[in-house]
Structures are given as structure tokens and as C-alpha cells.
Design goal:
Blueprint: H1 13-21, H2 30-39, H3 50-62, E1 66-71, E2 79-84, H4 86-98, H5 109-115, H6 122-149, H7 157-194, H8 210-217
Antiparallel strand pairs: 1-2
Helix pairs in contact: 1-3, 2-3, 6-7
């Protein structure tokens, strides 16, 4: 069933992410929201800049989805804190329940570089993959620590669930990356033994444009 477009404003998912961070019972500054995003949704969706957070807050406040107030402590510069409104909470519930389920967008910089592997020595490609594995291990460890830190706050039960999923996601990516180390050798051998190359070492296609036919055979391909 499609979403009821009258039940929530037409906003990008980043706006809903900021609004969602205000649904945990706290009023927060823009800087707080930046840190909260890095601590939680940054593992699986978005790590915004401070300027992006404040731009989203202005938009949400203009739409009456959030409210703000200035908090001043004696001897301390005032802070503007933001909270979700009743209207914002209703809209957030509707969006998170009824919006279309989209496929995640995969933009994998390491795989893009491996896709160009014919330009490089296999050992250079393996160094890229090993660095990628080290980065993934660090992210998995951080996600695990953040999930464990959520244990004392029952209201973060679903945050903890998401962080545990993030840890498993990074661990699965480590497995895939480790498999690539062997795949690189196989691809390099096939390229070396079977591909016809020009004077620059670039492949000469046997069937130019064959990818067009593949796309035509699978109408759902994009």
C-alpha cells in the first residue's frame, strides 16, 4: 500500500532523521544533534555536518515540526535547544510507518576502484582491500561499544538494535572483503591470460557494447 502523502510533509529523509533524533525525550542543541548522529545513525545512514543539522532545524521549525527556546545559565552564553512538537511527532510516526520502502543506495568507493583493477597491479589492489578491512574492523568495534553503552538506557532499545545490526553489517563486509583478496588473483589471471590489450595495456572488447544487450534482456536493470 502506498504512503498517504497528506499524512506527512514531503521532506528528504535527512529531515526525518533530524526530527527522529528529537523523539527520544530530550531537547537538544544543533551541536548535540551532530554528536548524536555520529554516535548512532552515522553507522548506517548519515553523519551530517553542523551546518547541515542547523539547516534542517530551520526547515523543520518553519514547518512547525520542531520548536526552539533559548536556555541561559548564569555566566554562560545562551544555548538554543530544539524539541519536537505534537504535529512533528504525528508527522514522524506517519512517515516512518507509511513512507515507501526504498532500496538502500550503495556507493562503494573501494569497489569502484577495484572495478578499474585492469589499470593496476594485483598487489596494489590488495593493499586497498586490506586498508578497507582495517577500517571496517574499527567501525565494527565502535558500533559494538556504542551498542553496549546503550544497555543502561531502556529507551534506546531500538537504537541498540540498530547499532548491533551495524556491527554485523561491518563484520559481513569484512568477510566479503577477505574473499576479494583471492578474487583479485583470479581476475588478474583471467585478464592476463585471456584479454586482448592495446598498446596502453587497456582491454580491446571482443563484443563492444554487449552490456547494452544484457540490459535489454533484463528490463528491470538500470
Amino acid at each position: 500500500m502506498g504512503a498517504d502523502t497528506d499524512s506527512f510533509p514531503n521532506l528528504p529523509a535527512t529531515s526525518w532523521a533530524v526530527l527522529g533524533m528529537l523523539s527520544f525525550g530530550e531537547e537538544l542543541t544543533g551541536n548535540d544533534l551532530k554528536k548524536w548522529a555520529d554516535w548512532s545513525i552515522g553507522f548506517f545512514y548519515w553523519s551530517p555536518s553542523v551546518s547541515q543539522v542547523y539547516a534542517e532545524l530551520k526547515k523543520l521549525e518553519d514547518l512547525s515540526l520542531v520548536r526552539s527556546r533559548l536556555v541561559t545559565d548564569e555566566g554562560v552564553r545562551g544555548r538554543r535547544v530544539y524539541g519536537i512538537t505534537d504535529f512533528g511527532l504525528r508527522a514522524l510516526r506517519s512517515w516512518s510507518r507509511d513512507s515507501d520502502v526504498d532500496m538502500p543506495v550503495l556507493k562503494h568507493g573501494v569497489m569502484l576502484r577495484l572495478w578499474m583493477g585492469h589499470l593496476h597491479d594485483p598487489e596494489q589492489l590488495k593493499r586497498i582491500v586490506r586498508t578497507h578491512i582495517d577500517n571496517l574492523r574499527d567501525r565494527a568495534q565502535r558500533a559494538r561499544l556504542h551498542a553496549e553503552s546503550s544497555e543502561t538506557e531502556p529507551g534506546w532499545a531500538f537504537t541498540q538494535m540498530s547499532l548491533r545490526w551495524s556491527q554485523r553489517h561491518f563484520e559481513a563486509e569484512i568477510d566479503l572483503a577477505e574473499q576479494l583478496l583471492g578474487d583479485i588473483d583470479e581476475a588478474a589471471a583471467r585478464y592476463r591470460e585471456a584479454a586482448v590489450r592495446d598498446e596502453d595495456g587497456l582491454p580491446v572488447p571482443r563484443h563492444p557494447g554487449i552490456w547494452r544487450t544484457v540490459a535489454d534482456d533484463h528490463p528491470g536493470s538500470t
